[in-house]
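Narrative summary of target 7.
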Amino acid sequence: MRYNINNGCLSPKVYLQTPNHTTMKNPWQFDAAMVAQQFATNVSTGLSSEEASRRLVRYGRNTLREKRGPHPLIIFAGQFQDFIVWVLLAAALISGLLKELVDALAILGIVILNALLGFIQEYRAERSLSALKKLSSPTARVLRDSKEKVIPAADLVPGDVIELAAGDHIPADGRLVWVTPNFAVQEASLTGESLPVNKTTVVLPEENIALGERMNMVYLGTCVVAGRGRAIITTTGMETELGRIAGMIQEIKRETTPLQKRLERFGKWLVYLCLILVALIFLLGILRGKQSTLDLFLAAVSLAVAAIPEGLPAVVTIALALGVQRMVKRHSLIRKLPSVETLGCTTVVCTDKTGTLTRNEMVVKYLYAQDITFEVTGAGYRPKGELLSFGKSVNPDDYPALKRSLVCGVLCNSAQLTEENGVWQVIGDPTEGALLVCAGKVGIWKEEIEKEFPFFQEIPFDSERKRMTVIRRIKGSSLGFDSTGKEERLVAFVKGAPDLLLNDCQTIDDGTSVRQLGKEERRKIEQLNLWFTNQAMRVLATAYRVLKVVPEQIGETAAIEKDLTFAGLIAMSDPPREEAKEAIRRCQQAGIKTVMITGDHKGTAVAIAKSLGFFEEDSLALTGAELDALDEMEFARIVGKVAVYARVSPEHKLRIVSGLKKKGEVVAMTGDGVNDAPAVKEADIGIAMGITGTDVTKEVSDMVITDDNFASIVAAVEEGRGIYDNIKKFIHYLLSCNAGEVLVMFVASLVGLPTPLLPVQILWVNLVTDGFPALALGVDPLNYNVMERPPRHPEERVVSRREALLILSQGLLIAFCSLTAFAFVLFVEKGSLSRARTLAFMVLACSQLFHSFNCRSREEPILKTGIMANPKLVAAVAFSLLLQFSVIYLPGLKGIFKSQPLSGSDMGTALILSFLPLWVVELVKLSHKRKG
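Modeled conformation, tokenized:
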């Protein structure tokens, strides 16, 4: 075994022999090479795929065991916990004791059917929510077969070598083998320590050392807040520190949405109202003395069950869960159910530029070096293209400063350019990937250059300095960076924002020598940078510094990043997404404002905003510096007009979101980096990018966009509005139908009519109408105009006064038709009470089923929405009609429901009266449409 430790870091050049087993107690007590040997792994190549597969079988998946959901039998038993169901069961028992066996069995049958329906609803909701959890599995960057791969974190095994960077969640417990000096981890979830912990790779000799003091270990459930590192996985799944805690405390908390809370309050009020009405009907029947007390009691209880929409919460849960799964197909993964409701209220979308509004395929278009501007051909991530100067192809070897500029960009780079089956892709930041692609076009490859310039130290990018520096060893005059001799030197390679980096450049590389950077050259570089940015390009400057004497303050950034030699400019473009332009137009149509918040140059950001159509004549653009110059009153005055924020820091993003919320806006905020997390958390809807987003940002978000596309955000808003609309539709349907059932009995008691419906018939109507049609309305297709109206207010009532009047009027219409059928047979045709009840029973059920088509839209007539637009509703109504006909015509059922077969003329009367509510409501809609 050969290994080398430098400054507490394991050198990448390590050969490790295979040990007998892969377990280790207290890995912090051993050096990194010993840990690697013990786990039979190689820190520079990782495990092979075959070995990882064998270990996955041996150790199991890297997941925490979740507490199982309720058993289906428990869910079914829960359907019998309502007070009303207990009363109904008591009524069935009393009927049985009085030898009314048919009534008792019928009531029990209805109760069981209702329980089955509720069970199906809740069970489907549990399955839907469980499926959502599986969709949000995290990923990890791991070395497998000498390549860096992104795999599901659940597939990690002991001995895997993982790469870590700022923003990543630690996917399992591991021993660090290499870190940058600023590598820090937030471990508050395990230790309670609020401050990040700086990590190292040095051996800790103590055996019994506290978790928070294990400086060379990382643990599942914590996250990297700064720097980069590499670790060997030591334990996975339930064997991790977090897994042990999870084994002791399994707590799953069901999330209740604001809508469900409002519905719960509304439902209680509705229950009290219904019970008062049912009590009145019961008392009126007692006072008249025409029926037995038992019959009146059974009718009252049955009516109470029919009047109260006890299945409403379950239907709401199903609508939310199924709607959220539908959103997944449109690249929107909802992490928190309440955000579905908030989406429909969104008034401002604050979005990043790169990858969200643009294609996130950065391609270098221009290079500037040796006082020449070169054009770069080629598209995408395939490293094929040419360098053009004044339209003619040139040989890059003739321009050494140009090559040194690209070498700076390649060595100061965390991305990887890979090719698999002829497809080139970038792992990491697209901007850094574009540098690798461009360098590949001129024959400079990262793997080869890194061998020539061994790594020494890194100063990572941060939003304050806006640059990244990597220090590497150099010997002799490799590529012309140092011509002072053959002794080993250090070179600091720097890339960053031109406007800041240029201030620290004192010399310039002109290809043949390094000379002083003059004022005129500075001005020319600044003007060229401005021209590039005005063309909606992102520009990076490259520079370097040969450290002939290593500064004592090698860890101090300022000591390294000064007296630099300017190498060149690299201008790249990320064209706007075509679908983003249409999505922004739809946002404007829906009353939603788009605001771009980017770290890019102001000119670039404004150019993109104009091309996408949301930067108008009166729009403003602010930089972070300009924002700092505004006090709170000034900012509050103009915040509604600002369409672009450029060159912003995390503090700026937080201030922007807070300022918009203070103005009463409902803000959706997108983010991908660690610096976006505070603003994403502060927003009403925090949206993380699924591809480029860090784990920290995803953790605090409400929603993850799986394709990093702005159009998917707009699609999520559209779906959010549609889900809320559907919830309102079936609430309207349930309440108007239940109002009709109550009013039939109430009006009949009030005017002294015989009871128009028997208890078993009331229960059946409630079952056949409130079940499948209500569920079908919950998955109704989106209305065509859902994005053509302004956002709804967050505190909008579940049922407004206007809607309550509409529900009551439609309930009266349904009751009128049923009572008309009852009275017609009883008083006009002098028919039997049984026949009158059967006709009223038929009309009440069918009119409610036909009324479900009314409820698809309160404004648009059926001719506009289309009868077949929701085939699930058509199927639900057809099936329910079949059930209704069966209890009238099937010999075995008509006795239970005390019904009798209807003649052709009776059936014609029933159908005419049943369609009447549909026709009347449609005529009212058409009338309002003409007036409108």
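The two ends are 85 Å apart (CA to CA).
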